[in-house]
Design brief:
This protein has helices at about 25-35, 50-60, 95-105, 120, 125-135, 170-180, 195-205, 240-250, 270-275, 320-330, 350-360, 395-405, 430-435; strands spanning about 5-10, 15-20, 40-45, 65-70, 75-80, 90, 110-115, 140, 150, 155-160, 180-190, 210-215, 215-220, 230-235, 255-260, 280-290, 290-300, 310, 330-340, 365-370, 370-375, 390, 415, 440. The chain contains 13 helices and 24 strands. The strands form six sheets. It has a four-stranded mixed β-sheet, with helices on one face. Strands 2-15-17-16 form a four-stranded mixed β-sheet. It has a four-stranded mixed β-sheet with strand order 4-5-3-14, with helices on one face. The longest helix is centred in the first third of the chain and has 13 residues, at about 25-35. It folds into two domains: about 5-20 and about 235-440, UDP-n-acetylglucosamine1-carboxyvinyl-transferase, Chain; about 25-235, UDP-n-acetylglucosamine1-carboxyvinyl-transferase, Chain (Alpha-beta prism), CATH 3.65.10. With about 450 residues, the protein is an alpha/beta fold. The chain is globular and about 65 Å long. The structure holds shikimate-3-phosphate. Shikimate-3-phosphate binds near residues 167 and 342.
Length: about 450
Amino acid sequence: MAAAGLSARRSGPLKGVVRAPGDKSISHRALILGALADGVTEIEGLLEGDDVKRTAAAMAAFGAGVERLGEGRWRVEGRGGFAEPADVVDCGNAGTGVRLIMGAAAGFDLAVTFTGDASLRGRPMNRVLKPLGEMGASWICRSGGRLPLTLKGGNLKRIAYRLPEPSAQVKSAVLLAGLSAAGGAEVIEPEATRDHTERMLRGFGAEVLVSEEGAARRIVLPPGQRLRGTAIRVPGDPSSAAFPLVAALITPGSEVTVQGMLLNPLRIGLLETLGDMGADLSVTNVRDEGGETVADVTARHSQLTGVEVPPERAPSMIDEYPILAVAAAFADGPTRMLGIGEMRVKESDRIALMAAGLAACGVGVEEEPEALTVIGTGRGNHPVAGGARVTTHGDHRIAMSHLVMGLASERPVAVDEPGMIATSFPGFVELMTGLGAQIGEDAPQAA
Ligand code: S3P
């Protein structure tokens, strides 16, 4: 017997006002910088998903005092550095967690073994190991740059590193290692990626110099920085808010508001794209919270039109292509998403899984090595059929995207392994059903 899954069926209008869970990227960074700093960091609105809880446990293993004070409220007492953990550090499903922690740990005279779940053990770590090696870290790894691996840190030297791929995780790993390197660190990114590490380092009292050179950015972390504990309020995750917002756009009669959503300019590619597609979105109550812009975003059901999404937009919406593909399935005409090869090395090969899931639900798709085209079913003449049970390979965003699709499809859409949704969006099902979505258990199928 296969395990019970979840199934989403055609739903009436979705209505309501919700809060997205705390931003995952900012939550990981708050815990890690809190542990590296001297003194106490108090965090509000931390995402209490499995990925972030693994990072919290890892920070305790490296010697920080980590305490949960209440819902989303955490206290981290940093000791100004990392001590060697007594055991293996298991980062679960979290690519951001393990890559950032490897960077931070590389700066200290310790040896530590990292591992993760089957998905994380299949993901490339060379992209982080390469610059850390150039800085002086070493490792033992018998699986071709994949986990598990044992990292040995300490005595790092300065690096000036040009990112070969647009990755905020690699940029952040180098900057975190640079905190302990003689001479600091410099990263050149050919395309700007999310800048939460740079912003938060400043919040902890560090000096970070950023200059723009065309589309590229040069980030310099001068040597000899000391981080001091601070207070952090984590804004709502735009990558999670995307699910209720797109659900409202595709479900007739809907109007949904997500409050307190992060609107960092390097994270709003999906909103821009949905705007290009003709989505009825309004942004209100724009405010500054702890150095980041947040706002309330309202989505109303809209007839969308297919568009071409340019490759340079990919870094600002890399985690949102699965749910964009769902919006595109209901649009009029094709939507072409270009320059999205990085999607293949996420929690799963997201281009392949979205193409397979959409095709199983009767949507026309064309898959290319670095692109995906979705042929929208248009103005209701040929609605999305649905009626499939989709294999998610344990990928939370693949699961949530297909459940959202089921809300407006002719027949229900089911997913396997719904437990993985809690890695980034605990309470997803409750939040969606509270808006009127019909999502429930899918009976186990005979193997
Ligand atoms: C993240 C960066 C992105 C993103 C991930 C979170 C971060 O990964 O996909 O979910 O917090 O830095 P890459 O840096 O590999 O593009």
